[in-house]
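Pilot study result, target chain (306 residues):
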Amino acid sequence: MILFAIVPFVFALALHFTSAFISRALPPAWASWLLTVLSLTVSVTCGLILSAAAVISLARLPEAAQLGHWSAPIIEHGGAPPVWLGVLATLVVSLLLSMALIRSLRSISAIAAARYALRGLEVPQSNLVVIENASPTAYSVGGLHGRIVVSTSMLRALSAGERRVLLAHEAAHVRHHHYLFVQLCEVAAAANPLVRASVSAVRVSVERWADEVAARDVGDRALAARGLARAALACSTGQPMTRAALGISDGDVVLRVRALLSAPPTQRRQLAALLALVVPLCWLAAAVVAIRTHGLIELAEHAYFS
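Predicted structure:
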């Protein structure tokens, strides 16, 4: 059972070192989905296995055995981890779960704050908000009905074609709900620090995703690269208003410009399929650990009443 128990942790460690590679190697839409799903999967399955370790370790205590009506010696001889490990696992799971809940509440609060701040500026039947601001800025705000916020100074800093790139980029963020990918990875990283690297990788991949959509919409990759570079340079002093916002200057701008000046990303189906296999393997490992834990408890209960 130990081999199964370490599977999600091995993949979590591997994800820590390969997130940036995945973000660069796969088409940005695929990378965003895979990194988000992988981060959530390894975080949840690691948490489940830690919880199972805590339960089966603490079940060795005579007080727990008496309360649960099972045989502590059966649990001990069944290969249960030592009690100290159960106590440690309980503390770790409690801490990480609390951090994940706090991060989730902060994400919801940030989105609500952004929506409230823009409520008085919204244009009916439009998701574009133009604000009078001397600082060039442009970003999209997440939510059920996202909003694109652009300052007048930003619009004046760009040519007509570059403005099309900017608006297409931010519209892609809203249409594909890119803020959810980032926020979900943030929650996964709070629940499992081993996947922290995936957060920055997903931020880059969703920006590249929006870049590719903008390039396709305007039909000119060179124009898209120029618009991205000009907008990023113009808004270098402006910052998005909340954590729920995605700005065009987020991520590695140099990497993104180079990607736009190159051919469209190639589909690497074999690599994507190989990475997708991690998901069922993690869940299989968690299921085996859960079943073995449940079976050992049942065996101990049977021995208690025999």
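One observation from the pilot: The mean pLDDT is 86. A full batch analysis is planned for the follow-on phase.
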